[in-house]
Amino acid sequence: MASPGAAFSAALAAEDFPWVESQEEMGMAPDKYREVFDLAQRGARAFRDRRFDEAISYYSKALNLRPGDPIILSNRSLAFSRISQRLRERSAADSEYQPLNGLDPTTHAELALKDAEKIVSINSNSPRPYLLKAYALILMEHYHEAREALLAGLQVDPLSHVLQTCLSDLDSNTNIAAGARRARLDRTDDFECTLCFKLLYEPVTTPCGHSFCRSCLHQSMDHGNKCPMCRTVLFIGPRTYPISVTLSNIIQRNFPEEYAERRSEHETMTYAGVDLMPLFVMDVVLPCQKMALNIFEPRYRLMVRRIMEGNHRMGMVAIDSATGTVADCGCEVEILECEPLPDGRFYLEVEGSRRFRILRSWDQDGVAEVEWLQDIPLPEGSQERRELIELANGASELARAYIRRARETVRTARRARHLDLESMPGPQDPEKFSFWLVNLISLRPSDRLDLLRLRDTRERISSSIRLLSDAAEQGCRVQ
After folding, report:
1. Where does 103-201 have alpha helices with state H?
2. pTM for the complete prediction?
3. What are the tens digits of pLDDT across the range 318-359?
4. Could you give the C-alpha distances from 167 to 146, 160, 163, 180, in angstroms and in order?
5. Does the N-terminal or the C-terminal CB of the chain have fewer CB atoms within 10 Å?
6. Name one GO molecular function term (predicted).
């Protein structure tokens, strides 16, 4: 049977991102729009040269600057679909003798579908988003859903020759119009995970031949590296271990409704689509602050192992003395150094980076949904902005004098490391500078928490100046 995606591949091409002269039409600053335009042009060139991975990289960078742009989303969706189709069309010999690393064809198609659905929600009056959606669904072998997407597109543009041609090609290649149906398998225990007793989701098959949900096996191996069924020692990493593609496709084709429920449940449990932060409850940490940690509790040792497999970042929060519960604000820290110790503990050196507010948390997982906090910005070139920078310049001179006096009093290397002038941010970034300034002073946790919540840069710098002046009168009290 000819590939039903061939007609889509021929009908769809990357769109050109327009250049506009009017700033109102840009909807953003000219220099930023110019950068988006340049990234989109590079992506288009890479797409035409069939360097789809490179094109996706350019389009993703452009979307970070201009989120939700339908043209860039459309082109990225098409690039994901082209990669998926190219991987599916590889011969068995090529796959055996020239193996590729990276995402499988189904995952690429799912990413293409995600972008296509975004475009449909933004621009539902054009047939192109429905073509992209149908293309991705065909690559996932969801032919009935693909046909429904094409029919929805024909409701928008009944005279679209492209939609009519693709629908005819899909019907002729898959026999959907004739009502052909494959006999579905019976739902048996063979398709259940023996750990959660539910339909397998993202199934992985161990070398000993047992299949589990990838997330279930991952949780099981947090407690030991043996197969949960036969206790064979497993030398695998469940987080990176490949999904059993054939088994996954069989389950999706034969139990689509239940699989959709499992997908929804999994997305809910993994909190997809939101900013998540693993939480370490200990002390108030501020941006620019460095500190050493000795991790010995089992739950935090597990958390550190997972973090070191990812982006090396976690959130640090304290108990709010006013409420007796976890504070509503915390600070993301980056792990600069991680030294595993023979007894299972970890020695960490971390540095505070960004502030966040906790929206909701899941105590059983030690994870929270967060939103990022920033100080209230002042317009560039405004009088308030100039006055703030002048205040920061004055505070930097006070800080230099304070550090010089502190160095004369405190001689130990451990103390002196915290008084390094080279790490001082420039006054041109007043928010970051204000936190560096606060870190020179010994404060109670409740006072530090108040400063963490504060969104007024001027007030934070002014408070630091008063505290530094008081500390200079009483002698150098430094962290």
Report:
1. 105-122, 127-139, 143-156, 161-174
2. 0.46
3. 998 888 889 999 999 999 999 988 887 899 999 999 999 998
4. 9, 11, 6, 16
5. N
6. zinc ion binding
